[in-house]
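Predict the 3D structure for this chain.
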Amino acid sequence: MAENGAPRGRSIRMTGRERREQLVTVGRSVFAEKGFDMSSVEEIAARASVSKPIVYEHFGGKEGLYAVVVDREVSTLLADLERSLREQRLHPRLLMERAALAFLSYIDENEDGFRILVRDSPVSQAGGTFSSLLTDVAQRVEEILAAQLKLHSYPERDATMYAQMLVGMVAYTGQWWLETRTPSKEIVASRMVNLSWYGLVDLQKSPTLHEGSKA
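Done. Predicted structure below.
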């Protein structure tokens, strides 16, 4: 008997929607484990206890299935981050804390999904890459920073750079934390905000490099 209780070589009778969802779940697991290049329609079909034509029927091939998986992960992470930044009237530090914790919570609860996002996408995959996702996040953070910089009479044009720096720090730290899982996500989030916030509190309006200066 197969693991799911059905005889080997025979698939469970499902509706088209149920079968599609099953293949997305199985594909997500395979892509996270092996990456896009090393994954195959054969293995995905075997793990789902279906024939290869079933996979092609629903997704047109490995690329189509991968695109659906990535799109769902991007949507999930962006939705989590959007919710964390929704209350614009909160103190900026609280918004930073919420965003950092939301990012780490996504990693904690969607390990396979995050592994897929941080892997290199196939050449044929035009959108949905981790870098494009971070660009979307950075644009959202930039809006918040621009308002705060303006409020304190800092150059608003710097919001773009600072947003990239903050998002990059969170994303890179998230990849490290995925492998270590220590300390807790709450502690990691608090340390990231501690570093970024106290750097922002004493931010110079026109910073310059000191090395090589006449001072």
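The two ends are 79 Å apart (CA to CA).
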